[in-house]
Amino acid sequence: MALYSEHTGKPAAKRARNGVIIIILILFALATIFPIYFMIMSSFGDPIEAGAANYSLFPTKFTLDSYKFFFDYSEYSYRWLLNSLIVATTVMVSNVFFASLAGYAFSKIKFKGRTVLFTILLIAMMIPYQVTQVPLYILIVNIFNIQNTYSALILPGLVTVYNIFLAKQFMGSIPGEILECAKIEGCNQFQIYFRIILPLSKTVLAVMAILTFMDSWNTFFWPFLVTNTMDMQTIQVGLKNFRFANTTYFAPMMAGATISALPMFILFFSLQKYFLEGVTVGAVKG
Amino acid sequence: MAQLAKPAKRRRIRGDGAWAYAFIAVALVVFAMFTAYPVVSAFIISFQKYKPIGSEYVGFDNYIATFKDSLFWKSVVNTVVYTILTVPVSLIISFAIAILILPLKKKLQTTFKAVYYLPAVASGVALSVVWLWIFDPMPEGIFNKLISLFGISNQNWLGSSATSMFSLVLMAWLSSHGTSIIIYLAALLGIDSSYYEAADLDGANFFQKLWYIVIPSLKPTTLFLLVTGVIGSFQVFQNAYLMTGGGPDNSTTMVGLLIFNNAFKYFEFGKAAAQSLVLAAIIALISLVQFKFMGKDVEY
Lengths: 286, 300
Hints:
A: MetI-like fold, B: 1% strand, globular, MetI-like_sf (chain B), transmembrane helix (chain B), Spermidine/putrescine ABC transporter permease (chain B), ABC_transporter_permease (chain B), transport (chain B)
């Protein structure tokens, strides 16, 4: 008994119904992934100006010249990918480590000011980023004077409140008895964190790592604001610059977009389970 | 004995407390420096005419200028229009898709979830590059080809103030709904089957079950998605920035973009800070209203 009728004894009716449903879902899926299909398919075209390029919906040609064109645009184009990798990896590692530590403290250790501090963090999560954007820029550029460095790209994202919240929510469900036992056995808090909490939180930390990495890789505005030379830009900023410098080169632009998105597609297809789980981890109250 | 045990216990607690402070230290420093300080600083800057050295206090001038600025109100209207056109439609689409996915086998469900989620993995810059070509104003452009099949003439999608906002909305409709679909599906699977059994006994049909059981049960989910959707939509400006730059004739200038331009194009930090705080107030107010109206019988 469910929302849908079981069509008991009428397998043909059930098959027909599911067939119709699947056709509708496929049509919508085609509309959703069309931009991505179009991007990848067109990136294999010739690197010529759009006036001469007549784009078609189906592949007519296969050449990697447009990719070459994109990489030849700037001597730093490989560096963009490397910069993105460095920043995203550092931000991911530091978030997993510091957010899990803080999440453990907030969920399992009693200390003075715990509730007050956590409430402040929660309230801060509701502040739109436009509010912090300007002062953060002033802080990094005018006060710390570290624009155009990896520190400027990494420091503000070292550990996010959202990730602390995620870790705290999950670790709150770990039974306290286990921790008590460990304590009686003579473990100190760091050993408890390292030997018990971390192994038990593997899944949620994997989700956190992946989503943090993806966010950092895809982020555009902050790197755009704090970098001013090509050698320090990330792939997203580089792609935007390439676009403005080569407004009519259709296929190379698509090649650039594909290059910026490809690492995330690979990550998504190999770790799909964690991506899809990640959506509900933060949303459905546990 | 009791007297001896007490200090020992207290010492242990104090010890744990020290560990806890050590564990949250980095997080707190990062938070204080890159979130708390900027928020306080935003308040201060909003009362200043900002200069790197020697900012002067100008009282409420930045706020008064903001409220008198017709462009600010235009951007608020644009943002509201964009939100009204995108958020409810994506909720309806995600809800419908989740309902359709529900009767399928687990494996098929996962495949569809993955496909619908896929565009969310690509960066906004990459997608904006692709959509720019889809909206190509030349007759060869994808959308122009598509509408010519229906006998509609060529549109200058992003370049005319009549269609630019609609183009951004269209882009939102056709982009990833993966997240809300997955959240809706999770909520659908959580509905107790005894409700359906009772409804079946009463001879309810599919749509009656949908109306009387599913929609009321999913109200908390809908509220969650609505509130987060509206909050997100009020801050959105990346697409506007990358696709139209707010133009033509400011027809796609959202509040977020206006703040960005004031700050980093005209370097009017004071004005930008004041506007960002007004935006924060508007968002807080709208969220509150949504909870009041929708949240009446939602249990948490």
